[in-house]
Automatic annotation (TrEMBL):
It comes from Artemia franciscana (Brine shrimp). Component of the signal recognition particle (SRP) complex, a ribonucleoprotein complex that mediates the cotranslational targeting of secretory and membrane proteins to the endoplasmic reticulum (ER). Binds directly to 7SL RNA. Mediates binding of SRP54 to the SRP complex. This is Signal recognition particle 19 kDa protein. It comes from the Eukaryota. The lineage of its organism: Eukaryota, Metazoa, Ecdysozoa, Arthropoda, Crustacea. InterPro entries: Signal_recog_particle_SRP19, SRP19-like_sf. Belongs to the SRP19 family.
Length: 154
């Protein structure tokens, strides 16, 4: 997974920049999708469309599959004042850097047309991620169950 610092140097936003410049890409933090957070804590989707503890790696992979230019940045969300619980959980479950950070996504072509007409806004991408991330988690848990049942049969 590429990080933005490996590929680009980000400057301050400037409206004269092209849509393909990383400064014009949207930022998505996991807190935007986290169903355990309140609106005040930064959730941007309805609770029933959110995900419990979304990971940047899941968001990155889903958007990469849709051929969006996407990068991960090692930045923390300003409304998350306490990172102790996340750090402890990441240590216990060895999530590493996939538990926090943010991703940047390019939404528009050079001429301003959407890269994907069905997902042309920040909100549509957030709702898409909220729908697809639980499916990834269920696939992962069923794969783990299959592995454990194979071991039992040996």
């Amino acid at each position: 997974m590429e990080t933005l610092s490996q590929k680009f140097f980000i400057n301050a936003f400037n409206s004269s920049k092209k849509y393909s410049d990383p400064e014009r890409w949207i930022c998505i933090y996991p807190a935007y999708l986290d169903s355990t957070k309140t609106l005040r804590e930064g959730r941007k989707v309805p609770k029933d469309k959110g995900v419990k503890a979304p990971k940047t790696l899941d968001m990155y992979n889903l958007l990469k599959k849709l051929n969006f230019p996407v990068c991960r940045e090692n930045k923390r969300y300003s409304r998350e004042w306490s990172h102790n619980e996340c750090t402890r959980e990441c240590t216990l479950f060895k999530h590493g850097e996939n538990c926090f950070g943010r991703i940047r996504v390019q939404l528009r072509n050079e001429d301003g047309t959407p890269l994907n007409p069905q997902l042309s806004t920040r909100n549509s991408i957030l709702l898409y991620l909220g729908e697809k991330i639980p499916q990834l988690k269920s696939q992962g848990s069923s794969t783990a169950q299959q592995r454990s049942s194979k071991k039992k049969g040996k």
